[in-house]
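Appendix B: complex inputs.
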Amino acid sequence: MDQINDFISQIQASGLYLARWDVVLALLVGSVGGVLIGAIPGVGPAVAIAILLPATFSMEPIVGLTVLLGIYGSSMYGGSIPAILINTPGTAVNALTTYDGFPMTARGEARRALSLAYSASFFGGVFSVACLIFLAPVLAKIAPLFGSREIFLAALLGIILVVVAHRRHTLIAAAMASFGIWLSTIGLHPATYSKRYTFDQAWLSSGVNLIVVVLGLFALSQAFILLQGDDEKIRLGRLKGSYFQGFRELARHPRVAGISASFGVVMGMIPGVGEFTAQFMSYTYAQKSSERPEDFGHGSSEGLIAAETANNAVPGAAMIPLLALGIPGEALTAMMLSVFYVHNVTPGPQLFQNDMDFVVALYLALLILNVLVVAFLLVATNQLIKVVQIPNRFLGVAILTLSFVGVYSLRNSFTDCILAAGFGLLGFILKRLHLPIVPIILGMVLGNIMEVKLRSAMARVKSPLDFVDRPIAAILFSILLLVLVLHFRRVWLDRKERKARKWSISHSSTSFAANLSHRRNFLLTERGKRLRAKRSRYSRPSTDDR
Amino acid sequence: MSEIDEDLKRPKRGQFLFAVFFFAVAALLAALLWDQTVWKQGKDLFSQARFWPAVGVFGMVGFTALHIWHLPRRRFSKPDWVEARTWLSVFEFAAWFLVYVWLVPVIGYLPVTMVFAAMLTWRMGYRSRKMLWISVIFAVLVVLVFKSLLQVKIPGAALYEFAPAALRNFLILYL
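Resulting structure:
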């Protein structure tokens, strides 16, 4: 009974944080803005958060974070609209929604698909927030057990998970994470007061600003991609039917929805894993356990529910490592970390111990946000789908104009803008080559955390074994080893599969054809050389031809 | 989908060029490690100013080298240079951005943003009056929301100094 009373008084105290006009306005702007941004393919929450970040620095932490959290949490709702209607995901995490959403549109069930996506997203969002509100007291007990060495190990685990999560790009992802670590070291070293990679330039003494890098890699690079590309012609059909049918349909699949949301919560809590893994795990589970697995990829309602529930359960859970340990698990929470730093609030065990009201207020904001977004979408979808038709190159102009606000308002520095343009170019190249960008940001943030925490941890460590003699450190270290072992096992299996595939496709007949082709090419080249030599005015006529 | 199928979908051109360029930069930074960082006697390895930059640069060199070694094609070809030309074409937009940044403190946020948005919209091939007006309205909205409403830190222009005193303060504060 006492626990229930404590819980209610906790909610009441946190509610006071939110009962202010500026927080309510932030909730509205965040939710509506996030849906709009998500619905425009080619913008995405990372671009929007990067641009808005400096503007939130002048706000109170709860207001600024509510806007950013609003954009983060609601962009996936919006992202499902173009994914379902035009087969183009609005945000990267809606890619799986296209598998089943667009086939439903193709057979004239666009409104059913949208309605299912909204209700699944709503369920995922609310489920994760409910889990976290109930988990908060447990986390408050566990968080103080994290000392320097545990936070160092968690950050190291985060960076390793980010790298290995980029399957097929693991090596270049590791190189990019190292690049991020190197970037974080530029400037004055606080422990020895010595300069590192400043090349005697005064503007490098204070280091490279994370927001400049984020704006360059996410916002400017996206503007360059859009400006350099072509506009796409988009046709939208008329939507018929009720938006409420999705809730009824969702109620018929409680198992898929519940397990997908749980995957989202668990994966969201682990730094460096996030939406993609949660989605693929829940989609695979839904397909394997379905009575009609053959429908998946051809407009299955279960597939759509699995994808949308899992991705929307992640944002709430992703706030856990950020708030409890000060470790961001992906690029968006890394950006949010800078809001805390600007206001001298250090997220970590102390925040959970001393300012639990603030933490729960953030979760309540996320809960209200989900309700606001669904209400907005049920009313405004018909008008909202028109934003899909904004031409790409004009969007590029808009993002470039807005990026200026983000970069220049930081320190009014022209040098920052040049740096951001440089990172924009790097991001443009990486996006064109389909190479990972996020490890650079996480390398920068986690590299800095690892440096500080390792230094303070080593002061109390006599032998290497002392580093893992505490229970949480030992658990983290074991997980780290397990992740590495599983990764190398997968690399070995991939290699085996590749070899087997190579053997199976290289038949003697194809080798013979390849030999013939090489021989023909060789003869043609030789003939070309002979003919050119014969026709050249300057070469001596060959005696062979006479 | 297997790894091989995914490899086939991945863009090929430019991969080797980028990897080699990144490796060259990483190797250069690694060579400068001893010049750009210090090693203080008496401090342990993890407290040294050189330790984390070394982790970064040697990580860049090592992982990029392995990445190059694993690339399916390890020699330059004509499509690489075609791709490089696309990369270079983006310098034009970076230049647009930097000229915009350079002009704002001189002429003023509102006028420069209006002209910038309209001119870049024109450059992008939108020649209709409707699109040009939309770009100008968008520019005005951006300035109103960020500078006038949210009061983000963008300095008043040098040109505003020539305006009459009453107007000058308004221009500097809100536009």
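Residues 542-546 of chain A have pLDDT under 50 and may be disordered.
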